[in-house]
Every structure is written in structure tokens, then in C-alpha cells.
Design goal:
Layout (H helix, E strand, L loop, with lengths): L1 E2 L4 E4 L8 H13 L2 H7 L4 H14 L6 H14 L4 H16 L10 H11 L3 E5 L4 H9 L12 E3 L10 H11 L6 E5 L2 H9 L3 E5 L15 E2 L6 E2 L4 H7 L1
Parallel strand pairs: 1-8, 2-3, 2-5, 3-4, 5-6, 6-7
Length: 244
Amino acid sequence: MILPTVRAVVLDIEGTTGSASHVHDVLFPYARERFADWLAAHRGEPAWTELMEEIRTRTGDPSLDEGGAVTALTAWSDQDVKVPPLKRIQGLIWAEGYVGSTLTGHVYDDVPDALTRWRQAEIDRYVYSSGSATAQRDWFAHSDHGDLSALLDGYFDLSSAGRKRDPDSYRTITRAIGVPANETVFFSDVKEELDAAVVAGWRAVAVRRPGDPRGPEVAGHPTVPALDGIRLHRRTRREEETLT
């Protein structure tokens, strides 16, 4: 697949650049087991205070204690509710696991080469995931392909951009990166996210990895099984000057 006139790509993580099963079978349980220990170990620190305030606001209970916070976090984790306080503490716990070399981020084999190829083509590269920006950075910095952080230009999450099925979230990213919507391509495995990006004026390509139980195609969007067949072209400076 060749896409001309592209200045930026925005990539989902789970199911697109990394394995969904790694998130659900490794990362989520790892954090879930450590909610109480993390809160106790960091009690009174700024990160603890901010997190507790977020949880109290989200639950509507201004007097919620640590035990209640753990109960809320555990329930959100079990239901895979994508709320900022859960994503924040997961990212903090995973960060400690990455530093301690007990965790790595899963990245499909084709991803490093695709990012390198797009960087050489002077195409900006961003990540947009429901996981916190901190967790995203750590995922790629401690990937099973080594440190890939130099291949990425920035990260967006629920706090900085908004929910992934809301077109306004993509408009927010457009303003942040300074690239026209029609020259930005979004890669994701979720139809509703792709739909929202298109409503915001972006171009969208679905990624459905082999073996995905949802099938190899995403209705209404061009679909690829990997990123190694994607060729992106950015206008040369001469072409841009000719247009102006």
C-alpha cells in the first residue's frame, strides 16, 4: 500500500504495534497485583496525592481511603475501564517493572523497520493509546527490540488528547502536532477509533494482525496485516514550493 502526501503517522499500540495479549495477560495482572503495595510505598508523595484525588473525584467519594482506592482500581482493572487514574497507576507500576528488568514491551517485528523507514522519509511519528504517555514511553524504551524511543516524536493519551472514539480527540492532536488533518494517517485495529479519526479529517488504515479473532478486515477502511507493506510519501520541498 502506497499513501502519498503524508506528513505524520499516529499509531495505536494494543493490537497494532504490540500484542493485545501481552497487555491483558502480562501487564494488567502485573499492575493489579501491586496496587496496594504501590500506594503504601508512595504514601504522601506528590504522585500519591494526585492519584488519590483523581480516584476520589472519579468515584465521587471525597473521603475515600487507600483501601477504597484499591477496591476501585481493582474493579476498573477487572472491567478494563479506561479511566485516567487507573491508567496513571498502571503506568507508574509498569515503570518500576521496566527499570527493574522484570517487564518488557512487546513490539511486532515489522514495527522498528517501519518507524525507521518513515523517519528517513521525514514523516513525523506519534503514538496515541489509552495507556498513559509514561506507559507508552516505557513500552517502546524497554521493548523486546531494544530502545525504540528515538524513532518516535511524541505520545498522546486520554489526559492529553481525550477518548479514542471521539473525533474531537483527533482534532486536539492535529492542533498539537501542527500537521494538517488530511496529511495525517492513523493506524489502529479498532473500527470505532478509525471512524472517529476519519470524521476529524484524518486518513485511516486498519491493522488486523494474523489470528485476530475479529477477522482480517475492518469494514469501511483499508486493512493491512502488518506495517511492512506500507509506503508513505512526503512531498519534497520543491513540490511544496510549487504548490505555494
